Amino acid sequence: MKVVSLDLKRQYESIRAEIDKAVLDVVANQSFILGPFVESFEQDITKFCLVKHAIGVSSGTDAILLALMACGIKDGDEVITTPFTFFATAGSIARLGAVPVFVDIDPSTYNIDVNKISIAVNRKTKAILPVHLYGQCADMDVILEIANANGLKVIEDAAQAIGATYKGKNAGTIGNIGCFSFYPSKNLGGYGDGGLITTNDDKLAEFIKLLRVHGAKPKYYHSYVGINARLDAVQAAILSVKLKYLSEWSESRRMIASYYNEYLKNLPVKMPDTASYNTHIFHQYVIATPHRDKLMEYLKQQGIETVIYYPLPLHLQKCFEYLGYKKGDLPESEKAANETLALPIFPEITRKEQDYVIEYIKKFFSSL
Ligand SMILES: *Cc1c(COP(=O)(O)O)cnc(C)c1O
Are residues 187 and 246 in contact, defined by beta-carbon separation less than 8 angstroms? Predict the structure, then answer.
């Protein structure tokens, strides 16, 4: 038997007629850049996330870049973030000439350890950029408290957390700005690149919309140097269809996760933890074991695909050597990079496939 980590074809088959019609509608309309399909999707998101403004952009990476630009982050500014995330989080900070300041993670959620943020704050600090990793939120109240006490902006990297909640509030609507990605493998994935920014701040929303179109208003009159970071109409039309099913899909993911929880709990592996204040959307289901590499290889031989997110924490990446971090500086992130493994999880995975994964994980540990 073969079990893949993600099979997007099954999802497409389940909504094929609607998706095909949505794409053809855009083609028939010939309105490809921003316009009615993007605006309509942005409206849908404001209702789904209960937020005042939603601004479709070209990718999750550009969402983070624009959010930082809108907060005035520039050369020499420091932005506090986590080293255990996808590269874009810190890459966007560095691209503006600002300095990513890495704070270690809390091993129970793999999110930034909020108890270690304050000691990283200094006169150069301008913002905190927490990531809601794997689909559950960082401890936002503590982050907001530190931000308010020090006059910092809070930008949420909610690329993996659309529809997740923190104390009842939606991911991406709690800080000053929220950033989302519609990369095809995300819980709400497009058929190409795409992203989105959320905010409840009218001024920031207006500024971000300006920066999205090269800082021009009206067209050809530029008061700022922005970028081209627009969401495609084809993506927006597809995402509008898929958004209708997102809550249902998130519920399926939670059920799949609780099935894994139930049948893997007695093994010598670290299980995923959901913080009491969170509802998790299980973008990934991640276990941890010191035998990770051997387990991964064993499962591969049985036809089971697993993935390591992320094998090298950002403070140890070659491109960030100039920041001066060394091995051992952020031990929880380094441990997570060495021991975590994401198991197959997607709404359409079958019970049979899950049983197969569970069976071979059990066999691996009984043979140790
Ligand atoms: C996917 C992702 C991004 C980047 O999104 P893209 O749309 O691929 O540019 C940023 N941060 C995190 C945590 C992500 O998972």
Answer: yes
